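Bench notes, bay 3.
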Amino acid sequence: MSSSLACTTNGNLETKINKLTYIQLTEVINENNLLKDKVQQLKIKLSGLESGQINIILQGKLFSKFINRESRTRNIVLFNVPEFSSTSCSLRIVLPSPSGVFEILKVKRKLLNVTKFTSVCISTDRTPLQQNYFKSILSEIISKRDNGENDLIIKYINNIPTISKNYQSSAPIYQLTSNFDPEHFSNLWRHTNIVLIPKPIKNKFDIKNYRPISFISTLSKLIKKHTEICLAFRRNENLITIALNITKTYDIAWKKRVLTIFHSFKINGNLFIFIKNFLKDRKI
């Protein structure tokens, strides 16, 4: 009897100990997970503070670079300035306002024609960052020229150097631009050559079975190129493109009626004179 009671007591104690151990282990695990979450939250906050400090440092550097660049906007730098000792030097000139810098840059080519300034190079006062960017643009344009691309120039857009095409180097486009301003249109552009193309599977001995094709100057392509160098893409400027397609009436079109229609569309100025000259005295 006594031995059975002892076994029962020992079994109850082991059960209670096992229950306590399980409860404690569960609490420890929960507390451990809670601590891990808090540590992770602290890490996130610390990383945020560190990135905030980095952003403040970057903003400070950018602001100092902006101040440095802004302080140079009134400066002009002259390179290779001759001295009395037969040597050259560089001069930095501070002007009253940035507008004076642009005025000098506009006429710097005229200054270079003067004997005393033939070897002098005139430039804006660039920051080291701007100098490195200009060098990269210069190396890029040299690489493109070596690969066969022609008529490339460095053009400043919003005071940023960019690679652009020099459209004025194209003779036909330049001629069209120069003729358009004084309201003149070349007589050669009004003449055409007619070539008869036989229609397929038709009797070649019948004149009606030939399609006449006229070859004239490709004005549409010239005007298309002309738009790339005109004022159409500047503020408060406009451009009108008109395509003339007068079927079978190259030399007998009712010119006054065509011009009247253009007037009704309120087309006037140089464009109207341009079209009028195109319709006048055309020959086959």
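Next record in the batch:
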Amino acid sequence: MWASWGNDRWTYTDVLPYFRKMETDGDIHDDFHGTDGPVPAVRRHNETWPPIPRGLVYTNRGPRPCLDIRCRTLNGPEPGGVGPIPMNNPGGVRMSTALTHLSPGRHRLNLTVRGGVVVRRIRFDGQRACGVEAESGGQVFNIDADRVVLSSGGIKSPHLLMLSGIGPAESLHRYGIDVLVDQPAVGQNLWNHPIASVGLRARDGVRCRPTLRARESPCVTPPPVRTRPTT
């Protein structure tokens, strides 16, 4: 999706190696899963699944299952169906970024972690980011960098870009911000990402296609999908 919008460095093929470097999958070893990364991935055995998904799997065993629902991995080319969710909590401990990345690297001389610091804007030398302007304890100061990684979430990331002069020119002018790049998409088109479950019971005589694959509708005539942006 990102590549289709113009960022040709974010194709599926380009970003897959980084996802593989990130994890060590204890169950699956193929071209789509990592084997020596800092974040472990584990799955519950189907004997411990809740009754409904476990029943679906059991009723579809054999050489001729009535539904094509078996899904070996949810992070692969064919993620649809019923299968275990990979989790990063072996032994009940969630393997956070702090545990898997920060703790092993605390001894590095080129690593500094500071709390109570708010980044006000990204600084640029021409078209290249060269650091940030930050504030702490009422003091404003600059931090220089060869590379700036912006990872502030779906709200604060575009907010920082706009404070730095990257965004819709009309909005930036309204707040007295000098325009570095007129990019109308920044700070716009935000969508929610809910998880919703829908249950149904078919009437007698209603037939569905024998598949639950994500890329195909299981219904003969799928209902229209309504979407709206978040507020």
